[in-house]
Amino acid sequence: MVKQYQMYIDGEWVAATSGETFPSINPYTGEVWAEFPAANEADVDRAVRAARAAFEGPWGKMLPSDRARIMRQIATAMGEHADYLAKIETQDNGKLIREMSGQTKYLVNYYHYFAGAADKIHGEVIPTEKSTMFNYTLREPIGVVGAIVPWNSPLLLLSWKLAPALAAGCTMVAKPAEQTSASTLEFARLVLQATDLPPGVFNVVTGYGPSTGAALAKHPGIDKLAFTGSSETGKIVAKYAAENHTRLSLGTGREITQSCL
Question: By CB atoms within 10 Å of each CB, which of 8, 206, 255, 261 scores lowest?
Fold first, then answer.
């Protein structure tokens, strides 16, 4: 049977406004095993608005210690379902279960690590020559992060973006590769069922790069883009980011990590 997936926006499972879908093919059998909504600009805009509302609302007002608690809930849920998530990724991208299982189990520690960093983000008091002045730095979250993730290690490369973003107080709209969207949506299901993450903090839109991916990269409501993929696509994403003066992290052959502050 072909499994029917929906997108995850603002804490709800939704279809594309157009009603269009696209298939995922099991690389081992060559058969279609799942279908996903093909998001358009309206769907992406809905997800970005939900992320903005969460950033300006409950997530942005939450204490860092509470964000850390929720991230530990994510880590626990991943640990309990690591084997299942690995099987989904293998069915979607055809890589060895040994590799995918190693990655999903490793991510438990990754979320715990950044949960520990959530309440340790601080600035500095800087000496000044004037006794009447108080000079200091303050680190603040950027806002809404758009994450575009490739096919080869979907949850690993998503988490490299999501965990630091959550720790910093950012919200996210993630767009997985059209070939491997299942594990990101299964991860979203765990987040919904097993954590206290407020609606809109984490959203998933699915679709093709030239349509869904471009709509996300072009959206003026995105404060930071994080992209991992080919160099050629990276050039296009960089162009879109430049048009809106959007902060950008590119991983094209080598992952470049930047803060979400």
Answer: 255
